[in-house]
Amino acid sequence: MASDGAAATPAKVTPKKANLLDPHSIKHLLDETISDVVKNKGYAEDTRLGNLKLGIGAAVIAVALLAQFYPKKFPQNREFLLGCVDTYVVLNVVLLILSYTKEKDAILFTHPPAGSFNSTGLIISSKLPRFSDMYTLTIASADPQSISANKPVHFSKSVTKWFTKEGVLVEGVFWKDVEKLIDDYNSERKSK
Questions:
Q1: Which listed site, 9, 47, 83, 86, has its alpha carbon 20 to 30 Å from 147?
Q2: Looking at the domain assignment, is residue 6 inside a domain?
Q3: Same structural domain for residues 93 and 133?
């Protein structure tokens, strides 16, 4: 292939687009973008809770499969099946308790930034209530009891500030808002 001295064209970035009539689509797109911003600021994702939930889910599936394919037929395996049903219910209740107590509205858990003296990561959570355009983003410490934990910071803004009429996310404006909130959280630490 002959080179004619022309500069290489940069890869075209496709704009992120959401259906403005679907609040779940809007929230999903904003949440994904927040994850990119937080990771860009040096925070690594903490997947321990997600991995724990996957492990419990796998155990639930294993119990269900064991109950289904146990070698004995029904009258002989009644106690075994009752034990499987009990275990299945208990494990699902544990999953629900984890979701309601640990996850709540969290979209991202992080580790502290590399090279930081901070001993706690962040919990990023968001809300977009039904029939509302007000998006609330909250940043809190992953360990509120830690000495290096800060007070949570949040903002509530209309999603119309970040989308065009066609549903394209104006990423630059949204990134600045999220970065400012992260900086506000970190500056709270410095002012202690």
A1: 47
A2: no
A3: no
Q: Is residue 10 part of a domain?
A: no
pLDDT digits (tens, 9 = 90+) for 127-153: 999 889 999 999 998 888 877 778 999
pLDDT tens-digit profile of 119-128? 788 999 999 9
Residues 37 and 57 in one domain: no
Per the structure, the complete domain to which residue 96 belongs is given by: 52-102
Number of domains within the chain: 2
Q: Which residues contact 84 (CB under 8 A, 6 or more apart)?
A: 63, 64, 66, 67, 70
Residue 12: how many other CB atoms lie within 10 Å: 6
Residue 1 binned pLDDT confidence (cut-offs 50, 70, 90): very low
67 lies in some domain: yes
Q: How far apart are alpha carbons 62 and 56 in whole angstroms?
A: 10
**Same domain? 166 vs 185:** yes
End-to-end CA distance of the chain: 61
125 in any annotated domain: yes
**Same domain, residue pair 61 and 28:** no
pTM of the predicted structure, to 2 decimals: 0.79
